[in-house]
Amino acid sequence: MHALAGDRQSTDRSRLLRVAGTNNYKTGQRARIAHVDFHRPPYKVEDLVGGLPDPPSTGGGLRMTGQPSRADADDGYRAVTPPDYFRAIAGIEVPAHGFVSCPMPDHEDRHPSCKVWPSAQQGWHCFSCGVGGSIYDLAAAVEGGPTGAGLRGEDFKRAQARVVEAYGKR
Known about the structure:
4-stranded antiparallel β-sheet; about 25% helix; DNA Primase, Chain A
């Protein structure tokens, strides 16, 4: 039997299992099953996760409906494509494959794990730290502020001001 390699950056035990057949967005390769013993009884999910709490919701990020929400239609900034707003707000040029280092100032991301999709409806998402979302989430993230459901009130107003500063009034 040979040793199996893993992602050295994954040290959080709740992130170690990758479902077979899904993409590893760092390498672009599909995850595969290395060994299955059908003679052993299956595990119960409760036994695998034990007392782990549910991960916090980061909001946004993986919305891939392709349809803008009504709020998006009323907000011209939400139509700006993620590669464009990464350049204007964070000063990051997005390569054709869409992976960049995470824009969060406290996330040392030596191996780009943040996917920037081409459409505004898809947005962006860091597969390492879980942050992602819309143009406003990026504006807040580069300042180290909250994103997703936590981006409210004064934090949202600061993010909105940064977007207006980058693009002018719309």
